[in-house]
Amino acid sequence: MPSQTFQLEGEFVELNQLLKLAGITASGGEGKHLVADGLVTVDGVVELRKTCKIRAGQVVEIDDEIIKVV
């Protein structure tokens, strides 16, 4: 599984924006659709909140891509 580390610049990043910033999607809107379709997990649990606050220490997975937030 490909893995990448995402460095936070603040306290949190919204899930749909994280997908965009990590290069998984081309836009935040595309990220919202992936989340709504139940294709994204946060810490191993399917996350359906598009603007869920992702903080340091959390792990986001979509398909075979893993994003470790630090």
Q: Order of strands across the widest beta sheet?
A: 1-7-6-3-4
Q: Could you tell me the mean pLDDT?
A: 95
- Uncertain regions: pLDDT < 50 for 5+ in a row? none
Q: Which percent bin holds the helix content?
A: 10-25%
What's the main sheet like? 5 strands, mixed
Strand tally is: 7
- Bin the strand percentage: 25-35%
Question: What is Rg?
Answer: 10 Å
> What overall form do the CA principal axes indicate?
globular
Termini separation:
19 Å
Order of helices and strands: EEHHEEEEE
SS content category: alpha+beta
Q: Helix count?
A: 2
Summary keywords:
globular; two-stranded antiparallel sheet; 5-stranded mixed β-sheet; alpha+beta; single chain; 2 helices; 31% strand; 70 residues
Question: Any overview of this molecule?
Answer:
This protein is 23% helix and 31% strand. It contains two helices and seven strands; from the N terminus they run ββααβββββ. The protein has a five-stranded mixed β-sheet, with no helix packed on it. Helix 1 crosses helix 2 (28-36). The mean pLDDT is 95.
